[in-house]
Amino acid sequence: MNDLPILSIVPVEFRLDLKDPFIFTAHHIDHFPAANAEMGPQTAAKNKEFNMYYGDVVPGFPEHPHTGFETITLVEQGYVDHFDSQGNAGRYAAGDVQWLSTGNGIEHCEMFPLLHENQENPFELFQIWFNSSPEQKQQDANYKMMWREHIPHVIESDLAGHKSDIRVISGSFKSTDAIARPPHSWAAASENKVNIYLITLEPHAELTIPASSATATRFAYFYQGNKLWIEDQEIQFKHLVELKPDQAIQLKAGGLEARILWLEGEPIAKPVAMRGPFVLNTQQELDDAFKRYRETHFGSWPWDSAAPVFKRTQPRFASYEGGKREEYPETDDL
Q1: Which terminus of the chain, N or C, has fewer Cβ atoms within 10 Å?
Q2: What is the pLDDT of residues 102-125, one digit of tens each?
Q3: Would you say residue 170 lies in a domain?
Q4: Is residue 51, in this structure, part of any structural domain at all?
């Protein structure tokens, strides 16, 4: 392995332990059954049968606080209803990305309504916890939707005609730039080279990822398929690979379509003090943030419950404080 651009290979069950500027990534998968009338599962959850069943009826994560970092949520299957203490709300779904800079504090909830009553409701998402610089931790929270209709795709073909699809979530792939990130994000500045891709390789497709800088952090997570080769090293399904950042990397799929989450970026290189959902730079800052949260709750909660959801028929949309609204109706019938 010494001659290969591979630093480590580790199996993944749920959490991808990463390095600066990334904190970790959670890969959530749940095989929810058909829904009941309240958008929960028809069969009751028993003994933590479902990984994300934290609501009383609807799966998800009821009202909770964050500060000092960013959550980047990439939905592959299912629906998410978002509400926060700034008055923002929305429903997003497969192919959409939500980017939340938690800054100096926000409360939000993420609920996963099951919309289909006559069929199963498979659910899958990645949530990347991405760090902020000390200055960015002091900024107001910021919420941004990246709709699947707008996220750029780069389609490449190898010499045999096999295609690769690179969804550019952050940064750029060759000459294609991602949608702008929130302004107070470490990923917003091009010099930080924060590239986040969702890569789909057709069976037997080959793809080369360009080199980054020698100081960057770089990971590839093989999350769907049967086999993947990085250079001449075979990678098993659901393994996380840390890679040398200053080398071009050749990927090759096996006999099935292969999907890879690709994460790379320049480190922030500041101390990290983390306690639950708060990520700051010192223990004193953590103590101060928890005290401030107990006193202010990072703003009043404007919703009628700790785990609100929209009606079943609500299409994908986002509303932002100040009246801005974006709506993207589905093309299929619920």
Answers
A1: N
A2: 999 999 999 999 999 999 999 999
A3: yes
A4: yes
